[in-house]
Amino acid sequence: MRVLGIDPGLRNLGWGVIELRGSRMRHVANGVCRSEGGELAARLLSLHGQLSAVLSAHAPDCAAVEQTFVNKDAVATLKLGHARAVALLVPAQAGLAVGEYAPNAVKKAVVGVGHAAKVQIDHMVRLQFPGIALAGPDAADAVAVAMCHAFHLQGGGRLSAAIARAGAGGRG
């Protein structure tokens, strides 16, 4: 199963694709979509086109997007929300299920603590995928979002198997 992770941003939208086979993860690709144009609508259209091309090139089976945190600047938060809408829309248009994770949940899943710094995320992504060439911090964050979703999917699979075993009288 291929998982697309997305770290939404209006200037730089990070993306990362990993492949999940059982309990093993393999890095496929990562990058950053950089918005072009001066007006908000043009920038969003640019992100939409670039992210659509990523989906076409890498054919993920599902996607995950980091949730937006609210900061003190309401205008910046609203603009980030627009970019996040593109990040949710593009995979949904492709018919993919889209998971959403709070930044602290991603950090906890990948680093082990919910308030990890970006450098710690980068380090753990590099440990998981030795030799990975990251396109930047936004791409590292996106790979981390994909990893978080993969862990969630793996955990769900174990839960489903346990429930099935319990329904069969605990055999299995």
Structure description:
This protein has 172 residues and is α/β, with parallel strands linked by helices. The chain has a single domain (2-167), classed as Nucleotidyltransferase, domain 5, CATH 3.30.420.10. Helix content is 52%, strand content 22%. The chain has five helices and five strands; from the N terminus they run E-E-E-H-E-H-E-H-H-H. The chain has helices at residues 40-58, 74-93, 103-110, 118-128, 137-167, and strands at 2-7, 12-21, 24-34, 62-66, 97-101. The chain has a five-stranded mixed β-sheet. Strand 4, helix 2 (74-93) and strand 5 form a beta-alpha-beta unit. Helix 4 crosses helix 5 (137-167). The radius of gyration is 17 Å and the shape is globular.
What distinguishing features does this structure have?
172 residues; alpha/beta; Nucleotidyltransferase, domain 5; 5 strands
In short:
The chain has 172 residues and is of the alpha/beta class. 52% of the residues lie in helices and 22% in strands. The protein has helices at residues 40-58, 74-93, 103-110, 118-128, 137-167, and strands at 2-7, 12-21, 24-34, 62-66, 97-101.
Total strand count, please? 5
Domain module count: 1
Largest sheet: 5 strands, mixed
- The helix-strand sequence is EEEHEHEHHH
CATH-defined topology? Nucleotidyltransferase, domain 5
Count of helical stretches: 5
Q: Architecture in CATH?
A: 2-Layer Sandwich
Task: Give the termini distance in whole angstroms.
Answer: 25 Å
What order do the helices and strands come in, and which of them pair?
Layout: E1 2-7, E2 12-21, E3 24-34, H1 40-58, E4 62-66, H2 74-93, E5 97-101, H3 103-110, H4 118-128, H5 137-167
Parallel strand pairs: 1-4, 4-5
Antiparallel strand pairs: 1-2, 2-3
